[in-house]
Specification:
Helix content is 56%, strand content 0%. It is built from eight helices and no strands.
Length: 184
Amino acid sequence: MTSSAMNEDEAPRRLNSLEDRNAIVESALEAAIRRGDFDDLPGLGRPLTGLHNSDDPDWWVKQKMEQEEISGVAPAAFQLRKENAVLDDTLDAFISESDARDYLAGFNERVRAAIMDIRTGPPIFTPPRDVEKEIAAWRERRAAQRSAATTNPPPAPTEGQGEERVDGPPRRWWQKRWWQGTRG
């Protein structure tokens, strides 16, 4: 038999076979180890946290999101439900009525966009809010806060407090020290 006859009997070797890929990866890892690319990595010698305590295949994604403090990546239904639950508190943080109206308009637009979105995901049960009713409730809450503030004034300063400056905002600690040092 000639060498050409032998080559015809053997199955042709695929260049992209699993064995070839494994060999390429192994050689790249060995070269990186020889170069010292894996020396002094953060967490060297410590086990990966969360590796064996969960059956969740996306445990590492969730861990990275916690480390990077990434939020707001939930489906629209969950985000809107959460936003709807704290909407009154969010509105109470606004000082002007126009800002509260703008926020409500944006909230309603996000709800309508989520309802019209045809992609898969949990259903949207959050209804759009009636802007006029919400603004009326916002006004009532603000009036109640103002009346509570007038009936319960802040406590009067005790001796030694608030005596330094009456004509403006209180001085910061560095301003006090600088000012006290120049007086003599």
